[in-house]
Amino acid sequence: MIIKNAQIGNDTEKVDIVIQDGKFKSIKPAGTVEDPADSNVLNLDGKMILPPFIESHVHLDATRTAGEPHWNMSGTLFEGIATWAERKESLTKKDVMDRARETIRHQAKNGVGFVRTHVDVTDPKLTALDALLELKEELKDIVTLQIVAFPQEGILSFPHGKELMEKAMELGADVVGAIPHFEFTREYGVESLNYAVELAEKYDALLDAHCDEIDDEQSRFVETLATRAYESGHGERMTASHTTAMGSYNGAYASRLFNVLTKSHLNIVSNPLVNIHLQGRFDDYPKRRGLTRVKELVAAGVNVAFGHDDIFDPWYPLGDGNMRDVVHMGLHVAQMMGYPEIQESYRFITDNAAQVLQLTDYGIAEGNSASFIVLDAPDWYTALNEKREVLYHFEQGRLIAETKPHETTLHF
Ligand code: 17E
Ligand code: FE2
Fold this sequence. Notes:
By secondary structure, this protein is α/β, with parallel strands linked by helices. The chain is about 35% helix and about 20% strand. It has 13 helices and 16 strands. The structure holds 5-methylcytosine and fe (ii) ion. 5-methylcytosine binds next to loops.
């Protein structure tokens, strides 16, 4: 098939793209590709195309359980964890697969083609992991799922936590998780990170720790992870998610931290939609934003991606799996509202996130899989500001979702 007059990202030059056998065969300036009479042609008239969005941090095992068995009324991370612990008791494989599949359908509609999902393995039966491993295979032509063995209730603070982590990796999880700020002690937190780094090495796996997701300026586990990342030389394969405590660190400490952070090549995933809601809950006024230092991290050259984190679950009662909403919130809370910052912000959910997931076949380039989305907009600024639809979502040359743009008629 041929895609004519497409605009890749914010580039103003238009291109024609030939797709063959599920790959981008050639990408040439618009008007230079001959129309073979029998070919399937889609003329985009200058609309913007991007590689599919990447959800770099979500909890698909918990999705669509908000209100079960009750609503999180304090709005804290901790009530969320306690509520989920209750809901976890009634999990079945079908229950998890059905809910996660439904959310993936919404993500596909919104142009998401790659998803890193944390899956709670602090469950002796590992029901959710079993379900997500099967769903990953079932939907492999629709979405690339990356599964994190996530110890929601701790590695050292949960019975047999280490064994459960190891079992999860044996069963096929792709990424080792951790949650040092939730362990009983600071020492357990450090030990849990050391254990996670060793486990990732043993299984040649990536690592993504929930790290310092708390408004405690004394929560300083990211320095441990960054140091391990630096010493291992594999920082680009490791990620610290949330790191909201960084928003509360004093300037002198942050300056020291940034030294090892930048040297380590550790990735950071921020979840602005959820952390603006969960954090600051123990503050009187003035209330902290509870977001990591996105703007300063980006300026220092640290790779930062944005995740949705939750879609209708005990931590966050809203969400349609639309990464545009995440970027919209992120730009506000991080105060990155200069024109070039807005125009470039799709990178938080595309290229930067691809680096987090360590994707090798990603992007609109000759030879890559022909996976891409078409936005009903001439540029990202307009797409973001006017909430323009993802008109088409292709995975490996196959159309998997299609949306008609809304049409409004003004009678004045
Ligand atoms: N679990 C956790 O520890 N933190 C979160 N933000 C969510 C689950 C959603
Ligand atoms: Fe999370």
